[in-house]
């Protein structure tokens, strides 16, 4: 299944993008040019993508969960301009059905509008919104789930640092469109179960994944 090849700006124009495997250079670029522009109200305000790229891949590999890191970047000569960073694992029990495997999103970061305006020289109207870039990143996760033969199943935990706004984005039908795992419902075996379900876990089943995928088909 094909990944997206375009993102939309606030004025409705399309920018060509490419989904690629993340490299250390991508992580370093993000740390140098994007991370400092992320606001204090976002869950990823203190993230270090070079550290995430290194340590999470090592940890995921040790657990046998097959980590994969992706970047969505704008194809603009002469540079590939990262605008979404994503790290997931391919082998994680589905949150709603522990007998099945799913993709689990560990980290997802959309570039803020200030990156496009202050660093790349776009106007605000010529920039994609953070919400649309979040949807683009989630589409990569869903598409990858299908490509792994996992029927679009995806799980994630909405970091508390994102507050209610992040919860609302994941649950909104025309945004994340995910289902909330009821608070207290057991998580799959492992350290997450030991920490407990805090009521901030979301998942895609076949139905919600299919709906989310269709919303993004126009950008393939």
Report a brief summary of the structure.
The chain is α+β, with helices and mostly antiparallel strands and 220 residues long. It is built from seven helices and eight strands; from the N terminus they run ββααβββααβαβαβα.
Describe the structure.
The protein is an alpha+beta fold and 220 residues long. It has a single domain, classed as Aminopeptidase, CATH 3.40.630.30. Helix content is 34%, strand content 28%. The chain is built from 7 helices and 8 strands; from the N terminus they run ββααβββααβαβαβα. The protein has helices at residues 24-33, 49-62, 113-119, 130-147, 163-171, 191-195, 206-216, and strands at 6-8, 14-21, 67-76, 79-94, 97-110, 154-157, 179-180, 201-204. The chain has an 8-stranded mixed sheet with strand order 1-2-3-4-5-6-8-7. α1 packs antiparallel against α2 and α4 (130-147) crosses α7 (206-216). It is globular, with a radius of gyration of 17 Å. The mean pLDDT is 92.
How would you describe this structure in keywords?
7 helices; eight-stranded mixed β-sheet; 28% strand; 220 residues; alpha+beta; single chain; Aminopeptidase
């Amino acid at each position: 299944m094909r990944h997206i090849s375009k993102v939309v700006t606030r004025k409705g124009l399309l920018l060509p993008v490419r989904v690629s495997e993340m490299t250390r250079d991508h992580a370093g670029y993000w740390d140098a040019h994007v991370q400092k522009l992320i606001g204090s109200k976002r869950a990823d305000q203190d993230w270090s993508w070079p550290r995430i790229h290194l340590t999470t891949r090592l940890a995921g590999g040790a657990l046998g969960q097959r980590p994969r890191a992706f970047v969505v970047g704008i194809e603009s000569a002469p540079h590939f301009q990262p605008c979404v960073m994503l790290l997931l694992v391919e082998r994680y029990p589905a949150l709603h059905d522990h007998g099945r495997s799913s993709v689990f999103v560990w980290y997802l970061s959309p570039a803020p509008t200030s990156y496009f305006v202050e660093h790349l020289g776009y106007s605000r109207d010529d920039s994609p919104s953070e919400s649309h870039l979040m949807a683009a990143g989630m589409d990569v996760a869903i598409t990858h789930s299908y490509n792994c033969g996992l029927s679009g199943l995806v799980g994630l935990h909405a970091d508390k640092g994102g507050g209610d706004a992040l919860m609302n984005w994941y649950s909104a039908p025309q945004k994340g469109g995910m289902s909330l795992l009821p608070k207290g419902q057991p998580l799959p075996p492992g350290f997450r179960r030991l920490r407990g379900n805090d009521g901030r876990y979301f998942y895609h089943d076949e139905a919600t994944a299919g709906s989310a995928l269709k919303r993004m088909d126009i950008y393939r």
